[in-house]
Design brief:
single chain, mainly beta, 5-stranded mixed beta sheet, 52 strands, 55% strand, globular
Length: 827
């Protein structure tokens, strides 16, 4: 991220405020933050030849009107505590054409730099397809997010499935890229997000579904980008949720339910030179599973999550930032549910760490950013006890079959150069960058016997495992990109870019051209039309290439009376070779594992600022993904194998309508409707290669994705009331999640039509109310009460999906109306 102050002049035509040379006209100055929100109380000074001619302070709308006389050249400065000052130069010819200037202030700990005023239009690629989450509002939402990933379901196109996985545009999280301060922190082995940074450490959070800037890579669904907050000039600290929540059953206190104390500390270690931020949280969660009886209904997790940041101002052109994310956590009874009670669930211990060092250097009117980052993800998965696993139509028993220990690392060196803007038939802002990354994954996986039984307990099939399961692989992942933001006029801006990337394990080279535009048809800029078209490539997780070393399955099939009807049949672990790609932007060798999953996506968006209080936006997103990873059993006359291939397809379409009401953040609400289609080849590739695999590799089918929600209505926001009270509602109505029927052998049952089986309609009205009480002159306590599912609507949690189960097709389980109380210390 560019940590310098940016001063931009936007040409806005007005008939009454056109400055004429040599006249004492009014000049309007508008000041916003990096998120383009107005900033009040900003001090503006205008001078000429070091002599101050005028000064003023911005109002609640971030505007100030100045009369600076008839000086031929004016120099404006804008300053506000906690932000780096910005400067703008305005010459007489510029004054003749402009009477409104806009200045954007960056957070403190940035290089200070003067920028000559030039016409500019907001970059379509920085804003197109970007949904920004208001972090301050998200933290008080009834969802009560602890990490930035917990806050993502507030975005209309993002949802969490019952297993806790994030879905962006109907696709699993491993198809999206998670960036913290521009550094990719996805697990190198699985592509998952993992335990992200504490939500209190986040300053700006954006979700971009198929963004068209060439700087973004390693995704086909979307990019989740977070910028962490920086310290101000004064020390501050806060303690949130200091007390645990207790479980109450039948009016009696029954132990601890969860706890999430969060401590935040920030301030200057050396005034005007070195700034420090620390955000830490200790998370205890005993998640209750309502489909199981008490007290064997808890999945337990413990985590310590710490994010530390140092910002150093070296000189006027040079600054540096260092961060450390340290997150050990453990889960007992992972994926607990009715069909997998506690004895058959696994335990897992995680260690996730990321460290970064970034230098920002101003040179020749531009900026060079240099970043070195290291990420480590380690996991240890084990069963509750030794023994065999038993699968049956009514539910599973025994002990979990799998065990694994692995450690995955990724080291990245990122260079970005943003030279000074160039004027040629408009204004051009270029950016070029390189990424050199090296990733490794080593460990061991093992499996124990699995028995598959019929509805009467008869033995139908056994699965045993042969082989050591040791793996040690490495990958080199370079990328180069270039992009240009071209302001062709006062109403049109175009972005064009191209990205080249590869992974040495895939033996493929990939070229990704992208482009986008912004058009403002009206002079006042109240209507904005945006669009884009681009090619995107998934990063292939390292566990894809560890699959060849996994233990091999030995399958024996019985007739139900103890007689063998097939086997023992040993399945090889084969990684296929993809035929030469006909896609013109992929070049690859004919080698095993030459995967290059990609998508071609385009979107069109119209945004209308109806008035100061109402913003309306309609967006359409269209994506076709090819070469997706698949895993299916194949049997021939000479061999049997589990074949990992790259021939899967996925089509997604999404219409999103969003409305924001309220000009002030003190009373602002968001409403959205999403119409979504996401359907393609469904296989067990990511599940079998993930942290908690299922032992049966099912035949590939065509169906809707797990995260496809055809219709979703979402309403949330914040209202600040008198007497220091705040009310935050969160209302969601949508289609139920998809489910797939299976037979007594645990294989998918092919659907007779395109009608996708789903859970019943989901509805939940949640509300959080809070009130602040003063404690002394500088402190306060905030008491909060959260109500979940206020209408007590029945939202089933599970379904009997095995056709051999006598209760097949019945939904059960529900989280009814319940209340939570907590309080925060405010300093």
């Amino acid at each position: 991220m560019l940590l310098t102050a940016i001063a931009l002049l936007l040409p806005i035509s007005t008939s009454t405020l056109v400055a004429q040379p040599g006249t004492d006209s009014v000049i309007l100055v508008s000041v916003t933050n990096e998120d383009r929100q107005p900033l009040a109380d900003v001090k503006i000074e205008g001078s000429s030849d070091a002599k101050r001619l005028c000064q003023g302070t911005t109002d609640a709308q971030g505007r100030a009107a100045l009369r600076c006389g008839s000086a031929p050249n004016l120099h404006f400065t804008a300053s506000l505590q906690g932000y780096a000052p910005a400067a703008v130069d305005l010459s007489a010819p510029d004054q003749a054409a402009q009477a409104v200037i806009e200045i954007a202030l960056s957070k403190a700990a940035a290089v200070q730099q003067s920028v000559v005023v030039q016409a500019d239009t907001q970059s379509p690629l920085n804003s197109t397809d970007a949904a920004k989450v208001p972090i301050d509002d998200a933290k008080v939402n009834p969802l009560r997010p602890n990490t930035l990933v917990d806050a993502l379901p507030l975005v209309p196109g993002v949802i969490r499935t019952p297993d806790g996985r994030v879905q962006v545009s109907g696709q699993d999280e491993e198809h999206s890229s998670l960036l913290i301060n521009s550094v990719n922190v996805n697990d190198p082995a699985t592509g998952n997000f993992g335990l992200s940074v504490p939500v209190d450490s986040v300053d700006i959070l954006k979700v971009m579904q198929s963004p068209y800037l060439a700087q973004y890579g390693s995704f086909i669904a979307g990019v989740v980008s977070a910028e962490t907050r920086r310290a101000g000039d004064k020390w501050s600290y806060s303690l949130n949720d200091p007390l645990p929540d207790f479980r109450i059953r039948s009016g009696h206190l029954v132990g601890l339910r969860d706890a999430s104390p969060r401590l935040n500390l920030s301030g200057p270690l050396i005034a005007n030179r070195l700034y420090f931020v620390e955000g830490s949280e200790y998370l205890i969660d005993k998640a209750e599973v309502r489909t199981l009886p008490f007290p064997v209904d808890e999945s337990r997790s413990n985590a310590f999550n710490s994010f530390t940041q140092l910002d150093a101002l070296i000189d006027a052109r040079n600054s540096a930032t260092a961060t450390l994310h340290f997150a050990p956590h453990s889960v007992r009874y992972a994926n607990l549910n009715y069909f997998d009670p506690q004895p058959v669930t696994p335990n897992a211990g995680y260690q996730e760490d990321t460290g970064t060092i970034t230098e920002h250097f101003g040179i020749a009117g531009g900026v060079v950013d240099s970043t070195f980052a290291g990420t480590r993800d380690a996991i240890n998965v084990s069963a509750q006890a030794p023994g065999e696993m038993v699968l049956s139509p009514q539910g599973n028993s025994g002990s979990y079959f799998g065990a694994q220990t692995r450690e995955a690392t990724r080291f990245q060196w990122i260079e970005t150069w943003k030279p000074a803007s160039v004027t040629l038939h408009g204004q051009h802002s270029f950016q070029v960058g390189t990424v050199l990354a090296h990733a490794e994954d080593d460990g061991q996986t093992a499996g124990r016997n699995v028995n598959i039984e019929g509805p009467a307990g008869e033995l139908l099939r056994t699965i045993s495992y042969a082989g050591s399961g040791n793996f040690d692989i490495s990958d080199f992942e370079p990328a180069v990109y270039a992009q240009d933001h071209w302001v062709a006029g006062s109403r049109v801006a175009v972005d064009a870019g191209i990205r080249w990337e590869t992974q040495s394990l895939t033996y493929t080279s990939r070229l990704a051209p992208r482009g986008g535009f912004t058009w403002t048809p009206r002079e006042n800029g109240s209507t904005v039309v945006r669009g884009g078209l681009g090619v995107f490539y998934d990063s292939v997780p390292l566990d894809t290439y560890a699959f060849g070393n996994y233990p091999q399955q030995v399958v024996t099939t019985y007739d139900g009376n103890g007689h063998i009807t097939d086997g023992p049949r040993r399945y090889l672990n084969l990684t296929s070779t993809v035929a030469e790609s006909q896609f013109p932007f992929i070049a690859g060798q004919s080698r095993s594992g030459n995967f290059a999953p990609y998508s071609v996506a385009w979107n069109l968006e119209v945004e209308r600022q109806v008035n100061a209080s109402v913003l309306f936006r309609v967006r359409y997103l269209h994506s076709d993904a090819q070469n997706q990873l698949t895993l299916s059993p194949e049997v021939t006359s000479t061999w049997s194998a589990l074949v990992l291939g790259g021939s899967g397809t996925l089509q997604s379409r999404q219409v999103e309508v969003t409305t924001r009401t309220g000009a002030s953040k003190r009373r602002q609400f968001f409403f959205s409707y999403v119409r979504q289609f996401a359907r393609g080849d469904v296989s067990d590739a990511s599940a079998y290669l993930g942290d908690f695999p299922f032992p049966v590799v099912r035949t590939q089918i065509t169906a809707s994705t797990a995260g496809e929600i055809p219709n979703r209505f979402l309403l949330w926001g914040t209202a600040v009331l008198p007497w220091r009270m705040r009310v935050t509602p969160h209302i969601e109505y949508r289609n139920g999640f998809t489910w797939q029927p299976v037979d007594q052998f645990q294989n998918y049952v092919a659907l007779s039509s395109d009608v996708q089986p789903r859970y019943p309609q989901y509805f939940s009205a949640d509300l959080r109310a809070a009130k602040d009480f003063s404690v002394g002159s500088q402190h306060a306590v905030r008491l909060s009460v959260t109500a979940r599912n206020l209408t007590n609507h029945t939202n089933p949690l599970q379904i009997h999906n095995n056709v051999a189960d006598s209760q097949y097709g019945e939904f059960f389980g529900n989280y009814g109306r319940h209340y939570l109380a907590d309080f925060d210390f405010l300093f």
